């Protein structure tokens, strides 16, 4: 008997091995004592970090390069196998050369290289990192993006300072504390009514995306709204379709700038007319499971560029979502690849 599909694999940016429990970051004496043996994850002004070229490991730095104790802007990321990891701003220590790298969705990116390291971004390179590195990079970027948006107090406008080793900020004027925030967003794989898991999936594209790139539908949760209600509203708003049997699948942090993607699946009537939201959705259409499988078989995201897969009798072409997105994991699970 056919069973409802599940994710099957952990989304790329959901991998995290380091222990980041609150009791560690609220014990500054312990962390200062261990600073000399800790490692530092650098982030440059473009949120890129150095990776050992040809590997999936972050090129972390010794803490001695930054002083005898954590600087004021150091952020504690967690502990892994007896080593503490921190994040600090940083740049390559010298002249760099520019190299090309196939990033997410097959778009060729230019990245700096210096002394056997390439400086990469999380969205384009996250899927190539090992589990520990992926979790550290994701956490570092999420905290960096929050801090860049929380430099001033929302109550009195005074400057804020980092406390709790980067996991909170305190207003220098009124003393108000603020903690890192995450904006929830739903992403839903909508399939038709055939059988348990359907035979077709609803894909769409935004006008700003590269040519032939399609994905499943997503949107932010509004105030006072349930997750399931958000799924129903977003699909209705974006393509004019009513969905039912909304079912949760899993989640993934998405720090661009500070979201978490909550994955769902739902059913819809394939005969219902699709009405793309003007200015938001350029095109939407149903794609068969066999066409999605063909697109996965044809994926070449790490070569010179993504090769589109002809679908709909050759009238359209399809490039799947990038490897770092939960959308790709959801599509792979539904397609059975």
Automatic annotation (TrEMBL):
**Reaction equations catalysed:** a 5'-end NAD(+)-phospho-ribonucleoside in mRNA + H2O = a 5'-end phospho-adenosine-phospho-ribonucleoside in mRNA + beta-nicotinamide D-ribonucleotide + 2 H(+)
Query: Carries keyword Ribosomal protein?
Result: no
Q: Which InterPro entries match?
A: NAD-cap_RNA_hydrolase_NudC (IPR050241), NADH_PPase-like_N (IPR015375), NudC-like_C (IPR049734), NUDIX_hydrolase-like_dom_sf (IPR015797), NUDIX_hydrolase_CS (IPR020084), NUDIX_hydrolase_dom (IPR000086), Znr_NADH_PPase (IPR015376)
Q: What class of enzyme is it?
A: hydrolase
| Enzyme Commission number | 3.6.1.22
What cofactor does this chain's UniProt record say it requires?
A: Zn(2+); Mg(2+)
Q: Which residues belong to any copy of the Nudix hydrolase domain?
A: 180-309
Q: Write out the entry's keywords from A to Z.
A: Hydrolase, Magnesium, Metal-binding, NAD
List the SUPFAM superfamilies: Nudix
Which CDD domains does UniProt cross-reference here?
NUDIX_NADH_pyrophosphatase_Nudt13
Claim: Magnesium is one of the keywords in the record? yes
Coiled coil region boundaries = none
Check the record and name the Pfam families matching this protein.
NUDIX (PF00293), NUDIX-like (PF09296), Zn_ribbon_NUD (PF09297)
Q: Which NCBIfam families match?
A: PRK00241.1
| UniProt similarity note | Belongs to the Nudix hydrolase family. NudC subfamily.
Tell me what this protein is called.
Answer: NAD(+) diphosphatase
Q: What is the lineage of its organism?
A: Bacteria, Bacillati, Actinomycetota, Actinomycetes, Pseudonocardiales
